[in-house]
């Protein structure tokens, strides 16, 4: 049963249940602020307009991009054992749910789940995915929340009082800085409440060759995904990026244990955005994404620092990703 997409307009004045206050306005504010920094940055959350969401789905099917495939296989293997701990009447709350494809693996393993709350910043992708899940699982209450999962809202009341199961696959946690990741996990623990479980998917440190190929594929889909940020800024913000004068760069930063994506200017230029002029030197980059890579020790450290206990930690075959089951 589809409970309808919750938008900011539907919300009671306080406390806020969702977190969208005009996506375009926030995109403008955030991008202008990031381009004013040195070095220039942009948040990866702005990748996911309709075209960006489509390109990301295409990335997940690339031969070089192993994380989605490896995680789905691992999840299929361990979901039955982990789902046995949910209990009847539990609610699955997914942070950054996108197309909700991996969700099906959990839902199939946990037929007693009462409710599903997908949270995503892309309203279009969220609405479509929630409708598809509601159609496939008619007994499930599907109550989507549109917004930034970092600004957690109160959960919809109709999901009932059963145990809450956080679901955060895809190594999306890797997009956050260490401090942000810790703050997010602590907030999620409070939001999910007493007795909560949390299924966390992370990508693991591995050889730089494998990592760089995954973020710089031969077909150029990741390059298109990265540059789509500029296409989106031109369309939604009337920015003046000459998209062809920026190239995709994917680099392994060993010191910070992360893959980085950049857009590198191929010439000196000036770009108009929101009445401002931003200057680029040839070779200067906009740092558009961090994708942090973890170890079992770094996941355990993060869980402990944010108040969770690690109940299980499973690693798949190479190229390896891991799933952790956290307990409140
Ligand atoms: C969806 C954030 C997990 O970091 O691997 C894919 C996004 N960026 N290719 C990742 C992404 C470039 C992806 N996450």
Question: Helices, strands, pairings?
Answer:
Blueprint: H1 23-35, E1 40-41, H2 50-59, H3 67-83, E2 91-95, H4 103-109, E3 115-120, H5 123-136, E4 141-142, E5 145-146, E6 164-168, H6 178-192, E7 197-203, H7 208-215, H8 221-237, E8 246-253, E9 258-265, E10 269-273, E11 276-280, E12 285-292, H9 296-305, E13 309-315, E14 321-327
Parallel strand pairs: 1-12, 2-3, 2-6, 3-4, 3-5, 6-7
Antiparallel strand pairs: 7-14, 8-9, 9-12, 10-11, 13-14
Bound molecules: N,N,N-trimethyl-histidine.
Q: Can you describe what's shown?
A:
- It comes from Brevundimonas alba.
- This is Dimethylhistidine N-methyltransferase.
- Residues 27-327 form the Histidine-specific methyltransferase SAM-dependent domain.
- Keywords: Iron, Methyltransferase, Oxidoreductase, Transferase.
- This protein is of the alpha/beta class and 328 residues long.
- The chain is built from nine helices and 14 strands.
- Helix 2 runs antiparallel to helix 8 (221-237).
- The protein starts with 22 loop residues before the first helix and ends with a strand.
- Mean pLDDT is 93; it is low at 8-20.
- Bound molecules: N,N,N-trimethyl-histidine (AVJ).
- Residues 59, 67, 170-172, 174-175, 215, 222, 289, 291 line the site of N,N,N-trimethyl-histidine (AVJ).
């Amino acid at each position: 049963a589809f409970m309808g997409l919750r938008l900011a307009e539907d919300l009671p004045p306080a406390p806020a249940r969702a977190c969208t206050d005009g996506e375009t306005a926030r995109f403008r504010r955030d991008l202008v602020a990031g381009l004013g920094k040195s070095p220039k940055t942009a948040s990866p959350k702005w990748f996911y307009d309709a075209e960006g969401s489509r390109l990301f789905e295409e990335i997940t099917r690339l031969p070089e991009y192993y994380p989605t495939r490896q995680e789905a296989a691992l999840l299929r293997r361990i979901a039955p054992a982990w789902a046995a701990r949910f209990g009847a009447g539990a609610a699955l709350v997914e942070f950054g749910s996108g197309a909700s494809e991996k969700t099906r693996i959990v839902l199939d393993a946990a037929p007693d789940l009462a409710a599903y709350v997908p949270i995503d910043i892309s309203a279009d992708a969220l609405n479509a995915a929630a409708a598809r899940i509601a159609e496939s699982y008619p007994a499930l209450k599907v109550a989507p929340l549109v917004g930034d999962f970092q600004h957690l809202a109160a959960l919809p009341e109709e999901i009932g009082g059963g145990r809450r199961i956080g679901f955060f696959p895809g190594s999306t946690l890797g997009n956050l800085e260490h401090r942000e990741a810790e703050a997010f996990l602590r907030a999620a623990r409070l939001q999910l409440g007493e007795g909560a479980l949390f299924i966390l998917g992370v990508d693991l440190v591995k050889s730089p060759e494998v990592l760089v190929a995954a973020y710089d594929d031969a077909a150029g889909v990741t390059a298109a995904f990265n540059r789509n940020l500029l296409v989106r800024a031109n369309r939604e913000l009337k920015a003046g990026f000459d998209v062809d004068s920026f190239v995709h760069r994917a680099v392994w930063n060993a010191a910070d244990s992360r893959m980085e994506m950049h857009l590198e200017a191929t010439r000196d230029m000036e770009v108009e955005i929101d009445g401002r002029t931003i200057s680029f030197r040839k070779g200067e980059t906009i740092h558009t994404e961090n994708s942090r890579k973890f170890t079992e020790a770094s996941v355990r450290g993060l869980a402990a620092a944010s108040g969770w206990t690690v109940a299980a930690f499973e690693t798949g075959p190479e190229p390896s990703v891991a799933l952790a089951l956290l307990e409140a």
